[in-house]
Amino acid sequence: MSTKHSSGLGDRFGDGLWYVYVGLVALFLMTPLVSLVIASFYDGRFFSIVDYEFTLNWYEAALTSGSVRGAFTNTVYISVPVTILSTIIGTAAAIAYTRYEFPFREQFKLFALLPIFFPLILLGLGMSMWASQINLGYGVVPSIIGELVWISPIVMFVVSITALGIDPNIEEAAKDLGADTVTLYRKILLPLIADGVVSGAIFAFVLSWNNYYIVSYLSGPQSTITTWIHGRMTQGFTPVVPAVASLIFYVSILLVIGAAVLEYRSVDEGE
């Protein structure tokens, strides 16, 4: 009896330590972001917690600034095509790797995932040199191509995790019942991996939305929101910067919440 009681206390103590550890990690990660949001509402040029005064002036200045609107527009022009194209490319690659046998299959996986392991600053520099060599120029289109090289493998990885969890016998049964290739993909396979595809698309948008290193080399004179922030931090700080950075954070949080809601709904429907 005492042994079981001690074991139960030990398990509860271990669980408690685990929750404390997770809470401390979350606090460590969130503190800079929360500090940024607090600073974005501060009515003053240099932040001070002692005489803190609340204001929305910096958000108003950010939303009415032509340069900020232009940077946001360029970011959307890059992020939306990157999300769509990387989701298509990554999903197709994931299906090819997880559902088919072909020569050099493992080598294909390693080659496809290789850009993930490159430092982004080197990847951006390499893409910049490539764009210059083929006279592609700099701007939105080269930025889209550069981000696709990095983000498509991530989408492939995310979708592959979902696809590997699907029983191949389901597809075999559909084929035995007369389903052709189009029907198999449209009514069987794609609905089964839909959660992974949506998660991959959200990952793609968030990564593209927050990317700096690749677009800083490829966007040229057309600023994105991340290059705009970097320029203001290095060429003369303005209190509008925390407000703009917070707006990026709000968009990312909304996407994460949306992904969580979709996951919750899929779990409920599965039950």
UniProtKB/TrEMBL annotation:
CDD domains: TM_PBP2. It is found in: Cell membrane. The chain crosses the membrane at residues 20-42, 76-98, 110-132, 144-167, 188-209, 240-262. It holds the Pfam family BPD_transp_1. It is a multi-pass membrane protein. Its main location: membrane. Residues 72-259 form the ABC transmembrane type-1 domain. One of its GO terms (cellular component) is plasma membrane. It comes from the Archaea. Keywords: Cell membrane, Membrane, Transmembrane, Transmembrane helix, Transport. Belongs to the binding-protein-dependent transport system permease family. CysTW subfamily. PANTHER family: PUTRESCINE TRANSPORT SYSTEM PERMEASE PROTEIN POTI (PTHR43848:SF2). This is ABC transporter permease. The lineage of its organism: Archaea, Methanobacteriati, Methanobacteriota, Stenosarchaea group, Halobacteria.
